[in-house]
Amino acid sequence: xxxxxxxxxxxxxxxxxxxxxxxxxxxxxxxxxxxxxxxxxxxxxxxxxxxxxxxxxxxxxxxxxxxxxxxxxxxxxxxxxxxxxxxxxxxxxxxxxxxxxxxxxxxxxxxxxxxxxxxxxxxxxxxxxxxxxxxxxxxxxxxxxxxxxxxxxxxxxxxxxx
Length: 162
Prior knowledge:
Shape: flat
Number of helices: 4
Strand content: under 5%
Radius of gyration: 23 Å
């Protein structure tokens, strides 16, 4: 009887450990990993880069708010009994324009940061470009509206993995 209880407790313990090991870490991850680490930055470079980063975060926050408003408007229009497709298409065009503006701003920000760096720092900065994506922005992690979908693409809702 004691052996059965011991085996039962051990089995539960092993199941608990294995379930915990499969837990997701979340979309945020390690926030320090989002920033590029460059060697030998001067105080002036750090100050200017931080100012550019703060400006970029503010514009990105505004962009996200505008996109969320457009998404909500599009959703409410498409849920109507007789949706006005001209208005829905207009909202989709606005979303595409905003997305293009955001991409242009991202490239501009990157170039402004590059201009502050020495040639040696640029080499490192350029080599880390694919690794410095924002949280949840790896390929396959965003749906058609630019929102994160966790580990899988849109098909994950239907039980299919990528």
